[in-house]
Amino acid sequence: MRGKGSVYRRGLLAAMLVLAVVAAACAEEDGSDELTVGMALPGPKNDKGFSQAHYDGLLLVESELGAVISVRESVLDPQARVEALRDLAQDNNLVIGVGAEYAEPGVTVAPQFPDTTFMVINGQTSDADNLFVYGVREGVPAYIAGVVAAHLTTTNQAGFVGGEEIPPLYMADDGFSAGLKSVNPDIEIASTIVGSFIDPQGAFAAASAQLAAGADVIYSYVDSGIAGVIEAIGDAGGTALTFGIIFPRCSDFPEIVGTSILNASGLVLTMTSDYVNDTVPDQPQFFGVENPDVQRFELCPDHATDELQKIVDDTTAGINDGSIQLPAGV
Question: Higher confidence at residue 12 or residue 208?
Answer without folding.
Answer: 208
